[in-house]
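Field guide to reading this record: the first block holds the primary sequence, the second block holds the structure written as discrete tokens, and the final block holds curator observations. Each block starts with its own label. This record concerns PaaI family thioesterase, catalogued under organism Bradyrhizobium sediminis.

BLOCK 1 — SEQUENCE
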Amino acid sequence: MKRGEPTLIQHQQHPRKFDIEEARRVLGDVFAPWVQDLNLSIEGIDYEPPQTAAAGWQPGAVLRMPFSERLCRNGGIVCGQALMAFADTAMVIANLAANRGYRPMTTVDQTTHFMRAATASDVLADARVVRMGRTMSFGHVTLSSAHDNKPVAMVSSAFAMLT
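BLOCK 2 — STRUCTURE
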């Protein structure tokens, strides 16, 4: 199949649930090759609240970006560009979880607040959908060091839902 041709994912009806296997399939089929070069992995998908969920529960996803020297600038610090691309990708997966399936979308706004350097450690993204509307989605991502679980950046995003 050539890049850009519709895939099964693009033609399917929304599944009853958007599980981790479906998320991994989308990550491999839909994203640009350079995003796939980040070697992201999906750690978890939350598409419906557990029975013990707090009142403010939000659908979302947790992804991991493994540490790589290729992603670092001088001093072994993971560059902001890689972190922002990671946050954007995590938010797309969170939107798909909230939607319970693939839906074309595009980023219309992303604001990143860097809190401290990410060095020599995988980075985790906890992406949450704050509001999913018919034409727009709003969310936030916390990027944390996998080594000590301390936040390295906070990201807020808005997406246009295309269909």
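BLOCK 3 — OBSERVATIONS
The chain has four helices and eight strands.
Residues 1-15 have pLDDT under 50 and may be disordered.
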